[in-house]
Write a structure and sequence with these properties.
The chain is of the alpha+beta class. It has 12 helices and 6 strands.
Length: about 325
């Protein structure tokens, strides 16, 4: 029987991205083309344990103002806790049992973070594994805005992992303590990156189709369509490249760890084989993401360069 882990992760958000996570969490989009994991036919099964009273950003600004906190443009205004468990844990469980698990997790978070700061706690049943997105304003007990103090360093994150497991294992004794990225030396690769990669690949396919389908009769219409796609695709690739740079050290460490396990495989234990499979999966995931952003077809680059040159020429003429 596979190990079942209690999982708790945190992410910090500062400004415009708060609207993006709200759209995902509250399912306000009509389509989720960039997120193939969402099965909208099951979205009616999602449920709130804490229902938002207003928009995430508006609620955060309200709480921050009422606490009398000063903010900068780079201040973290919302912290999101992702709560879930290994897929095996949820197999065969009824909806009421799933709800009970997340209610227990909510009780844990409310013991350590004022319930008044919680903006929303929504459970998604329309993806592969049930999970809860819980968003709160990172206000301390003495009304300071400090995500760093609440979740911001290795020691604190380890504390959260320890306390979460201690709380959940009382009701669910089969659960094991999850490992935090800071302890394993491995950075969790957020699913959002893979979803962005899928979106970029689809845009690339559309661009290639337009380039292959252009002819003298549809050239003008196709040029406008191509221009709109290129203005999203090329900057999107650059943003993805920047995001992936922070995984360079992770990749190196994983490669070294993989090599060490290779030496031990002749007398491999089940644990070392499991660990090697886990590491290999992470390496494959990172390789897949890198291929997405590195393999820009030459035709796309030429089309983008030509469009940029034409744009600069028009500006010079206008001047």
């Amino acid at each position: 029987m596979k190990a079942q882990y209690a999982i708790l992760r945190f992410a910090k958000y500062k400004g415009p991205e708060i609207g993006h996570i709200e759209a995902h969490n509250e399912r306000t989009k009509e389509k989720y083309a960039s997120n193939p994991d969402v099965d909208t036919s099951r979205s009616h099964l999602n449920f709130h344990l804490v229902t938002p009273e207003r928009k995430y950003r508006a609620e955060a600004e309200k709480q921050i103002a009422e606490a009398g906190c000063r903010t900068r443009s780079d201040s973290v205004r919302v912290v999101e806790a992702l709560v879930t468990a290994s897929p095996e844990f949820f197999k065969g469980k009824k909806r009421s049992e799933v709800k009970s698990y997340f209610t227990e997790a909510l009780d844990f978070i409310q013991k350590h973070q004022s319930k008044d700061t919680i903006i929303s706690a929504v459970v998604h049943m329309d993806e592969k594994t049930p999970h809860m997105h819980l968003c709160f304003v990172p206000l301390t007990e003495d009304k300071r805005l400090s995500a760093k103090e609440i979740v911001g360093n290795k020691k604190k994150l380890t504390w959260w992992q320890d306390e979460f497991w201690k709380h959940m294992v009382k009701k669910y004794p089969d659960l094991e303590r999850g490992e935090s990225a800071s302890e394993t030396g491995r950075t969790h690769i957020p699913p959002r990156l893979f979803k962005e990669a899928v979106h970029l690949n689809r845009m690339k396919e559309q661009i290639m189709a337009i380039l292959n389908d252009s002819n003298p009769f549809n050239k003008k219409a196709k040029a406008e369509e191509l221009e709109a796609l290129l203005d999203k695709y090329i900057p999107g690739v650059e943003v993805m490249r920047t995001k992936l740079k922070k995984y360079d050290k992770t990749y190196k460490k994983l490669t070294e760890e993989n090599a060490e396990l290779e030496k031990k495989l002749s007398s491999a234990s089940k644990e070392s084989v499991r660990k090697k499979l886990e590491i290999s999966q992470k390496l494959n995931e990172l390789d897949e993401l890198r291929r997405t952003v590195d393999a820009i077809p030459d035709e796309v680059i030429r089309a983008y360069s030509a469009r940029r040159s034409a744009h600069h020429s028009r500006i010079k003429q206008e001047i």
